[in-house]
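G., the chain you wanted modeled:
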Amino acid sequence: MLFAVIMAAAVASATASSMRIGGPLHASCKADWTFGMSCDDAMKAMVDQMNAWTGADGCADGGEKCWYEYKSTEGNVVKGIHITPVHNYVDEMILTFTDGDSGSCMMNGLSVSTIVYAHLDMGTNFCNMKNLITGAGLDMTEGFSETASDDTCTQYSTADCDKY
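Predicted structure as tokens:
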């Protein structure tokens, strides 16, 4: 019982702040991107890509460009999940879009493992979002930028988005 209480407190702490010195306490990623297009278009592109990768086809040659599920759009926030193909772990994504300068769009992305004991993820939570961005071609927009680090994304510096 004491272990369950300690784990619940750790998860609540990770959810509330999601960060600690040296990286996230819980397998997760918080990153920012800028796209050279309107937020309406960027949001649509991300939702369309989630819907395009709902089945197993994107996993046929390895990698995890599959098993995405679009959940909802509320205002400027898009929610979805990604299920890893090997172990069927579920990661929740919250993508918040904000209009920027000169018609650009900024996206704050958060992907978090729902497994309470997940501490390392090989960069999967970063790749959950990055794969959608590259699949949708948003990384090819003028003024594209990405801000992420090991401090905000579990194992970001070693992430292999062709595999994860």
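The CA atoms of residues 27 and 121 lie 6 Å apart.

Shout if anything looks off.
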